[in-house]
Amino acid sequence: MMAQIDNKTYERILAAADALFSQRGYAAVRLRDIAEAVGLQHASLYYYVPGGKEQLFVEVLERNFQRHREGLTQAIQNAGEDIRQQMLAVMGWFLSQPPMDLARLYYADMPQIDPAQAERLMRLALDAMSIPVCSAIEAANEAGQIAIANPFMAAMTLVNLAQGVKLIPASYLSKVERRAEISAEVVDMLLNGWRKR
Amino acid sequence: MMAQIDNKTYERILAAADALFSQRGYAAVRLRDIAEAVGLQHASLYYYVPGGKEQLFVEVLERNFQRHREGLTQAIQNAGEDIRQQMLAVMGWFLSQPPMDLARLYYADMPQIDPAQAERLMRLALDAMSIPVCSAIEAANEAGQIAIANPFMAAMTLVNLAQGVKLIPASYLSKVERRAEISAEVVDMLLNGWRKR
DNA sequence: GTCTATATTTCGATAGAC
DNA sequence: GTCTATCGAAATATAGAC
Hints:
Chain A is mostly helical. The first copy, chain A, has ten helices and no strands. Chain A has helices at 2-5, 8-24, 31-38, 45-48, 52-78, 83-95, 102-109, 115-142, 151-166, 179-192.
């Protein structure tokens, strides 16, 4: 029953699956990896997710995108009116989340699942990322803080760079650098541009 | 012998493998996909690549990175002295190449092959991308065209955004938009920044 | 060189005991 | 609910004919 699967173990399975799928993608994660992370035999996963790997993947992504949409909206709202603070909040949000590789998702993962599901999920993904950030950019535009001709492109640029910072391997970070500092550098570079002012 | 495998079929196998691996990643490509693209049975691939899938992947990446390093250097050089033209050349180069997802490469693909090979390949990848672009940025810095505090970060930002433009699904491009135009928009956004001038 | 046939391994999925 | 055992499909890899 629904009441039964709404328990701790189910949540831990989804969390482990989210972390693994987000990092390695659909094909490179085995059900055995997820089971091991939760401390179960892989066959036990079918008690919670009768649809198997694909259903697990879809449920993980749905939650993932919903969480991103709410989290981004909240982070931006908490950051106040200043677009720079809002951009830093966006970067910070993605740093706090499992990595998200939209390109891998679209080109590698989606072709392996049901096409109708794939299309729906990609729509959810794009909306989750673009709508909150786009709104913030348009508001800052109207407030005169920035002058962006193509808010959607700007939003996806920011999201793209946030993923980039998130995914810098730890071994490439010097001892003093932290992702939060790099995020701030990236934001200021985006705001001020490469040319002298 | 080496002379035998240096033929047309071998080149076609590498080209097909490059296109498929670049798009879908290591795990999501089957040897049968590559063989089919070349018009062979998958078992025939072992005549050219005795080491199988992993060897094929490694050889493809080595060539891939070498080509990128040379192609980027050449594209930048042909673009003249202006950093904007050089940036457009970088964007154009990546548009002309199979997609490259460094994050997927590092987190999804590399863990599936020999660790020593993986480390060597990631070094090649990072050098191929960063060194040519970084040099151009530093030169433009000294010429007073731009003012960049962290050339390496700026270089990887440009590379990251170039991949982003390359990977926009065709279905998300309106009829009038073309990737080259979006590339120019991105470059100008990077150069001028979001804030009013 | 390329094929067919087959071995081997891996992995998702199912059955059934407890 | 979780386990063990096993199935069946798929994918890599090998053997050997042509």
